[in-house]
Hints:
Largest sheet: 8 strands, mixed
Strand content: 15-25%
Shape: elongated
Amino acid sequence: MPTTDDSALVSAVRGGDRAAFGRLVERHAPRTRHVVRGLVGNRDDVEDIVQEAILNAYVGLDRLNHPERFGSWLCGIALNLTRMRLRRARTGMALEELAGGSTLPAAAIPVPERVLEELEAVRAALVVLPSAQRQLVFMHYVQGLSCEEIATILGSSNGAVRVGLHRARSRLRRHLLQKGEAMIEVEVADVVVRVLKDSEETQLPELASELRIVLLRDKDGERLLPIWIGSMEGNALALALRGEMGLRPLTFDLTAKLLELTGARIERAVVSRLAEKTFYATLVVRTNGQSEELDARPSDAINLAVRMGAPIYVHDDVMETSAIADRDDLENEADAIAEGPPSEWRTLSPELVRSMWEASRGPR
């Protein structure tokens, strides 16, 4: 009998051909059984779960949007049933009983139009992925399978699945950037520090806070984005902005030099989001003809971008929610400093950085 692909068999089942569903089961039940057996030792339980998964798949076949993935979909159903059975065994009762009731089935809950539009945008973006990466994204983010479960289903390693998902996310982000995602190019306008007002310009000022603020200016406007960073990162950035080096090579200088020696370059640094008053950033690094996106602290990403001449961007929503109109508004940031003597913001100059460094060493 000639081989028929899963898409054709699913189409036949939807047209009323029950025998076609039997062929699907014959093709994919062994792998499904193997996956469940890896989590449940009792053979009777394995058969119960697989049979229930097959029944759920038959009843819900109209919900399968990608018929060519029937095998992975069936395994996903079986894994979800396995997890539910294991949780029930640990708690001694069904989760629905513990909760005292259940929510409506997902299909019965109306989905807001905005959410549908976002899902459609994601679906369209997935087209840019190679089929292997698209399958990983579907299994992990749509079917809710863990990396370990995906590895078991595909006969792969956990590490390979994680690498595949990372590359898929990076590719999607690059695609969204190319499609015009709202990004604003910025430049580092200044690094400032809070000092007591009675500090003389010619003397080492007394700091009102050990933290520094880096000011990112919108290149096409006057808005400033203030970001609190640590003293070490702020001092290093203040030196780099004026093309000066520390008394000893700094970590950022060494990292930039190592990247250059290996032929890697930073394509861009992005302040990507703000969550619970903490900024998050990414670095896009190109090496061996490929670009990889790395999570980074904003202070690290900005320091490296300045040293390697890479552009810096801020997501539009971050700028909209956190930017200030000009430096006069910076006084609002002083609220984060404990009450004390009158103080003011001052540019962190290389001379001030060196003076503080010398003072910290003490008398010799």
